[in-house]
Amino acid sequence: MSDSIILGIESSCDDTSAAIIKGNSILSNIAANQEIHKEYGGVVPELASRAHQQNIIPVVEKSLTKANIQQNAISAIGFTRGPGLLGSLLVGTSFAKSLAMSLDVPLIEVNHLQAHILAHFIDDANPVPPKFPFLCLTVSGGHTMIVLVKDYFDMEIIGKTTDDAAGEAFDKIGKIFDLDYPAGPIIDRLAKEGNPDAFKFNKPRLENYDYSFSGIKTSVLYFIQKEVKKNPDFIKENMNDLCASVQKCIIEILMNKLEKAAKDLNIKEVAIAGGVSANSALRKVMQDNHERLGWNIYIPKFEYTTDNAAMIAMVAQLKFERGEFTDLRTTATSKYDL
């Protein structure tokens, strides 16, 4: 691995992040979160892009300061080209292009989904990185997919959600329970005090390795409406059990398909990535499968699960070594295939 120093910039949704990587080592990983979206129960694209404009210069400056790196030491700039919210991506893309031009350094475009998966190759992400080929369950607010990773840039999506993503299901069900946004971490916390077998919800029956999460959301909604008619305090009185039961159902849906794929393809190297991979119950099930199914499991550090620039910088470093640069004509894109 080279000693090149790369600045990574991430702005795909509502977190503005900048990181400095040297080789595979992260020297800084700074993020500014946007609290304003809590008021609206979800990310408001226009507000997100405005906040990125306010945050991007301070975040980049802080990442350089923390890494003790001068601008002129930067070898290249990596940025998230997509997928994501177009307005948010435009802020990061425009800034990266301008800075690369002013410093006269190469520009490297990064696929956000590839970055979640390749975050596993950051020095301190895992004790050891996954071996190719491996399966990666990539779960976040916007995406849920099983990816067969044959090499750094040879990936195939073998299963994906046909409707909502798992993180989206957590947030929408959280709204039914009148929890703050984002609801996923709150459900995870409350579930620890609840009985996961208290309530049963519908699971989809899909062929192959695809997912669906709209059914559980509807199942929870109808169940809650029925119970609240009988007892207006039902949610409040059963909150921990509800959270534990919903969490168990979503994780069982995720793991059933992952186990099937691993068995069918005879792969023992299995990783998780994305924001929902921070979920404590999902991490525990992965650990259990290490013992039960003999999987070699790879669970990234918490700071590399949510949207962050360290993972962008990692991909940029891999592309830098291959001389895979982009030019100033590149544009942000809300859809960007693996």
Q: Please write the string of helix (H) and strand (E) elements.
A: EEEHEHEHEEEHHHHEHEH
Q: Class of the largest domain in CATH?
A: Alpha Beta
Fraction of residues in H or I helices: 40-55%
Number of domains: 2
- The averaged pLDDT comes out at 93
Q: In the CATH hierarchy, what is the architecture of the largest domain at level 2? A: 2-Layer Sandwich
Regions with pLDDT < 50 over 5+ consecutive residues?
none
- Main beta-sheet annotation: 5 strands, mixed
What is the end-to-end distance? 24 Å
How many distinct beta strands? 10
- What is the CATH homologous superfamily assignment of the largest domain? ATPase, nucleotide binding domain
CATH topology of the largest domain: Nucleotidyltransferase, domain 5
Radius of gyration over alpha carbons? 20 Å
Please list the strands of the largest sheet in the order they lie side by side.
Answer: 3-2-1-4-5
**How many DSSP helices?**
9
Approximate shape: globular
Counting helices, strands and paired strands, the structural category is: alpha/beta
Q: β content, as a range? A: 15-25%
EC number: 2.3.1.234
Keywords: Acyltransferase, Cytoplasm, Iron, Metal-binding, Transferase, tRNA processing
Catalytic activity: L-threonylcarbamoyladenylate + adenosine(37) in tRNA = N(6)-L-threonylcarbamoyladenosine(37) in tRNA + AMP + H(+)
GO molecular function, one term: tRNA N(6)-L-threonylcarbamoyladenine synthase activity
SSE blueprint and pairings:
Elements: E1 5-10, E2 16-22, E3 25-32, H1 45-67, E4 76-82, H2 86-103, E5 107-111, H3 112-118, E6 134-139, E7 144-151, E8 154-160, H4 166-176, H5 184-191, H6 214-230, H7 234-265, E9 269-273, H8 280-292, E10 296-298, H9 309-322
Parallel strand pairs: 1-4, 4-5, 6-9, 9-10
Antiparallel strand pairs: 1-2, 2-3, 6-7, 7-8
Helix pairs in contact: 1-2, 3-9, 4-6, 4-7, 5-7, 6-7
Catalytic activity: L-threonylcarbamoyladenylate + adenosine(37) in tRNA = N(6)-L-threonylcarbamoyladenosine(37) in tRNA + AMP + H(+)
Cofactor: Fe(2+)
Keywords: Acyltransferase, Cytoplasm, Iron, Metal-binding, Transferase, tRNA processing
